[in-house]
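Internal ticket #5521
Category: modeling
Description: The requester needs a full-assembly model to guide mutagenesis choices. All entity lines are attached below as received. Residue total reported by intake: 575.
Assigned to: D.W.
Attached entities:
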Amino acid sequence: MFEFLIAGITVPVFLLVLVGLTVGMVGGFIGVGGGYMVTPALIVFGFPGYMASGIDMTHIAGKGVVSSIRHRELGNIDWTLALTMIAGTMLGVELGVRVLVHFKGLGISAIVLLITSVVIMLSLFIYTQLETHRAHKKLDQLTREGKEIGREVQTSNLPTLFQSIPLSPIIRCRHARVIISMWVIVLVGTATGFLAGFLGVGGGFIRVPALVYVVGASTHIAVGTDLVEIAFSGSYGALRHSMEGNVDMMAVLFMIGGAMIGAQFGSIATAFVRGPAIRYILSYSLILATVGAILRLLYVMSGQNVEFLSLAAVMLTLGEMIFLCLFILSLVLFAVRHRAGKWVPDWVKSLVI
Amino acid sequence: MNQKGGGRRRAVFKFTFWTLISVGLATYAFQSYYSGQMVRWYYHTAKFDGYAVNPHAFMDATAEDPAFLDVGGFDTIEGLHAVPVRKGGRLPINATGIISLDEIRSGKRVLMEGDRIKVVKPWVIQESKGFKYKDTFTHKGIRTNPWSGVWNVIIILSLGLALGLMAEGFTDILGIKIDKTTHHVGH
Amino acid sequence: MKWFINSLMGYWILLLAISLGAAALVYQIWLKGRI
């Protein structure tokens, strides 16, 4: 148990380290900050709601840097893409926060915000899951036909559509091998930043699919590049939150201790899998977060009477972090076994390298 | 053989250097926290007029067994003290929240009795985004020193950098070769 | 039991069950009673 002088509570330190570790692993693997998992967890641990967001955002900034360093070594960052997006992302976040404040001033309820998050996450889940399933099937087919398979297979037509938009300047993202209008990239940054600011999340779970399905980057590059964005937007968020008095640095330090280790595992794990495997984990993260948000929504709508709903939402939040880590570890284990010629389930063979 | 030896030496140096930096930064942050420096920066000035208090001291107060806070110009709040503050004024040591004048006027949770403040309801249950929480006077009306925000960001980014490079050094020492992901082979 | 490992859906369900069980354990030991 550790006394947090600023937050004014006592919490078992190992819980903070564990949350940092699990979300660090997930974040390093699918390129998200993980705020939608961490913030509810911190509230359950006893941190006030406004501090939960601030502590999360500050630790995300540090974790983003740790993960980016490893992804840079893995060659998963396209710097042209990252730097072009940053201005759009920052602008989007600022706009999102201001619109949120304006709506709150008009008396818009928490219910509306929860419903908005549910709709967005559910739509993203459906699209990502369907496309990834198709890609997985295509990978299996290519394996059966004995064709050479690369790191990525993607079956959406959206990138071709967006890449054909002729608004100059057209820029060349050499590493991602994408030629696209700069405005599309800036728009992706602004739109995802806006949603992040409005919903109060990091935005990775929106930006990674956007980089894959709109810009047309490979999943690995989308993950690495997004983590750079997260380091920037997290720093900005950390600054804002700190100035509002929402950050207890000791809590952040314990979380970053765990995140540092988790992020290594998560980032290096990407080297063992193909793109669709990462997108599967991303879609699972989305659906579990959606179900958690629906449970919380039902709880609020029930007038906070049905306590079971609140408990179920807490279980799901904690369980989601553990589930995603176990799945990532499984994929690495299966990859190592497959390389050694040992038995692995059929569904895994085309997902791992 | 020499190249391997040189590479190994570089890895050890890299790991040791960044580990020392990480440990140094973490120790510095820890000490700033525990020496009270970070705490004093956090509970810096008042956002509105009211009475600076330490809500922890009267958390168990009830209507039947209220807490009474002595009002005075104390430099350090020890237990049941309340120090009058104005908007923008520096907070006394150990102040972790402010009871606003409006709150006293409404009389629902705190009342003025002579030259003492009577606390009957130190906390209420509130709800936000589907989560119930205890709303106390802790952090109410607190303005943090804005430079602490800059300090926080510098510390966390430096720590992130140091830890990331330390990890890179670590895998280098172990001889784990991290190959660059081949993005565009085949399909 | 084999279905839980041989199919993606089955593996998903297996891991989720384990994870929720672990979450319940963590909650029971460390978090019960906190708001």
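Resolution: model delivered.
Comment from assignee: Chain A has one domain: 2-349.
Ticket closed.
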